[in-house]
Amino acid sequence: MFVGSCAYAALITVMMGTTGRPITTGQAVKSGAVVGFLLWVTADFILYGSTNLSNLTRTAVDPVLELVRGGISGGIIALILAKVGGGARAGEKRATVSV
Fold first, then answer.
1. Were both Cys, which of 20, 50, 76, 81 would link to 86 (CB 3.0–4.6 Å)?
2. What is the pLDDT of residues 27-83, one digit of tens each?
3. Local structure of residue 91 (DSSP, 8 states)
């Protein structure tokens, strides 16, 4: 579960980093929700079509529920990136942390 969650967070982070412009927390929530939805629509319908592990109701509801988790994840990632200076683009000075 930990490895899968880290991969999911990395996917959302990469998506936010490819916009070419700074992203607000609201935009990150929307983007995270869309990424989560599309990821789970893909996974759930492939599993539904290729195995007997679930039914159509679960397959349709799971991606909708993922809108919440993906949105929350996107918002948290955006807040963390803003706090540590990860939102700097190429050519911009990045924030440094001194101890």
1. 81
2. 889 989 999 999 999 999 999 999 988 899 999 999 999 999 999 999 998 888 888
3. T
By the 10 Å C-beta count (0-12 exposed, 13-18 middle, 19+ buried), 64 is classed as exposed
Which of 40, 39, 34, 43 has its CA nearest to residue 16? 34
Only one residue has tokens 């807040």, namely: 79
Tokens representing 3 are 């490895």
Which residues make Cβ contacts (< 8 Å) with residue 55, sequence separation at least 6? none
Dist CA 81 CA 9 (whole Å): 12
Nearest Cα to Cα of residue 38 among 5, 6, 4, 15: 15
Contact 70, 35 (CB under 8 A): yes
Q: Torsion-angle region of residue 28: left (phi > 0), alpha (psi -120 to 50) or beta?
A: alpha
pTM of the model: 0.73
